[in-house]
Amino acid sequence: MSTYSFAGAHLKKLYQQKFSATNISSGQAVAFTVYDEKRARARTGLEAYGVLVDCHHPTIGTLPSFLKIFKLDIAERQGRTDFLVRSGLAKNHDWLFQGVPYAWLPRCTINGMEIIGHVAMQIGARYGGGAEDFGRLKEQDAWDGVPAKTRRTYAAHLCCAVAALETMNIVHGDLSSGNIMIGPGPDGETVCCLCDFDGFHHPSVPPLPRLVNGMPCRPLGTAGYQYPELLQRIAADPAVSDAGIMVETDRFALGALICEMVVWSSSVARWLDRYELLTPEMIVRQAITDLPDEVRALWPQGFALLEQAANAGGIADMPSPEDWLSVLGVHVRPHQPFRNRPYVEFYRRRGNRTTLAGKAMLSKTDSGDFASVAPILSAIRYQFADRKLTLKVAWPEPIFLVRDQRSHQLGGGPRDVPLNANDRLTSNFWELRVFDGQPQA
Length: 441
Fold this sequence. Notes:
Layout: E1 18-22, E2 29-34, E3 43-44, E4 48-57, E5 61-70, H1 75-86, H2 89-92, E6 103-110, E7 113-121, E8 132-133, H3 134-139, H4 148-167, E9 180-184, E10 190-194, E11 211-212, E12 215-216, H5 228-235, H6 251-263, H7 266-272, H8 280-284, H9 293-296, H10 300-311, H11 321-328, E13 342-350, E14 353-361, E15 367-369, E16 380-385, E17 388-393, E18 398-403, E19 406-412, E20 415-419, E21 424-427, E22 430-436
Antiparallel strand pairs: 1-2, 2-4, 3-4, 4-5, 5-7, 6-7, 8-9, 9-10, 11-12, 13-14, 13-22, 15-16, 16-17, 17-20, 18-19, 18-21, 21-22
Helix pairs in contact: 4-6, 4-11, 6-10
């Protein structure tokens, strides 16, 4: 039996100390530094303590990061964290999955203290500041001043994150207002993303135990965001003996969160006398209509879709992230995986005329550029990872994305542009048309 344990009193030994972790790609050691006691902003949770650190990456530079130190050694945790690190979620998306661990520390020694933990990005720090969780913004009445359009944009970000996880058969497992972060993103925009992936579910990795030494270890979601079937199974197991109970979908929690994001205000908090739209009792009774008329009138289409989620016959019948994007009025598709290798056609634009200048089937390697088509296209690099394509456009000219016959102005570069099959990117008198494999003549 492991003798490892870490207590809050041990944190003082870590401040301003250096440690290292092995990069799984290169096999080389990467150095980290824990902030001083004032700046480390130590915090505690059910399973762990956390402090702020810097990662001194040999090629990327300094990465402001968050070190999570677990209180107990649980055998399943290493394989689960290793799965998240190797999933590429943190590596292959600049901001949407900042909260996913990118390094695992199996019994690392810092100033004589043995720790077990993982490292993720400080959400928002790479873009100029810190992030705040949605729950705290609600409780401080700070959400009142967020414009309606901005709220829907944040909700769309959340939809895209859940849709991306679903393509990988990953369930976050604890979507709640406390695990939704709002903060700085690329190009000066504020973004919404997820944090705390410790309770995730994937069929290829074992879950954490529900209890360790008689104490709760694996939360089954958060009150107000758990779907009816899950609450029924929890109620039927008062002894906490059923290890097979787990959160098998994020879809219900997604719907509850989106409705909160769109309608929440200090007035709603007073009408409900709480900081969540739903109570477990309402969810078990599938009674979304128990919400006051004043609340449901704020967004009838959204609450109708939430009622569908509560009354669904099963997980597969719950509204999808794409369904929520539609009711939000955001006409974009989440970043979709390709079935085949991406095939790109390059057109030179002169006025209203376009001339085919080249074609390329992207290599199976994960990155490259298009200089072979034209030297100027060395400024457009591609990254093809986890069957998803991102173009990295270095020039400053305006960039337009055409998707589903709708043109979206993205602003100037440098910029990362996630592309799906049948998208078109136009910029600097060039047009790139992307296909899922070479189209049939």
